[in-house]
Amino acid sequence: YSPEEAYIMDEGGAGSIALQGAMSLGRDIRRNAQESGLRFDHIWIDSGTGITAMGAMLGYASGTELHTHHRPQFHITLMAGTESEFRSRLSHEYQAYLRHFPDPAPADHSPADHHSAADPLSDMHAALRFRFYFPPSARSFGSLNAQVRAAADAIQASEHIRPDLLYTTKHLMRVKESASQLSGTHLVIWSGRTE
Fold it and tell me: Could you give the angle at which helices 51-61 and 120-127 cross, rounded to 10 degrees?
């Protein structure tokens, strides 16, 4: 291959091309919920580079008339980075996405909510509902402690799977601690692996 034919992806599969693929997760969640008669009030997802979480939110918002459909609150467990970095990257990746794929993802506001066709970033931010969290223990990226290991052991004992320690276990710890304080239906997504 020549350099002109190659596309080098950033760490974590990040980038506008990867974002398009990650958006299928949100579209599938929305479609499956509609077909099954489900309504999720809260969707929990973890974030390293953020592409999967960003894609899930944008994909859920894409191609719908959000003023007539339910919009869940996305709860994002930040495994790396800060809220400010996530928001900045979301805007950057969405702008890059629009350069590659000019049809904006959240194309869906009532006229009163619509900012302008010339400002898709404003529309995107208005269409998304999300909140940030950090792991309740071993917050630094890549760090572990006895509490995280004990949580993984408890998950393995009750669910018969062994979640990875760096992402999934910490994310599930956050969900367990925080979700019980919120009413409504919850969907928990993990992008980590099992061991």
Answer: 90
**17: buried, middle or exposed (CB in 10 Å: 19+, 13-18, 0-12)?**
middle
Q: Which tokens hold the place of 86?
A: 């996530």
Euclidean distance between CA atoms 125 and 91, whole angstroms:
9
Residue with more model confidence, 117 or 132: 132
Percent of the chain exceeding pLDDT 90 equals 51
How far from chain centre, in Å, is Cα 168? 14
Tell me how far apart the alpha carbons of residues 172 and 67 are, in angstroms, rounded to a whole number. 31
Q: Full-prediction pTM beyond 0.70?
A: yes
pLDDT at 21: 86
C-alpha 167/C-alpha 39 separation (Å) is: 26
Token pair 């997504």 in the structure block, residue? 189
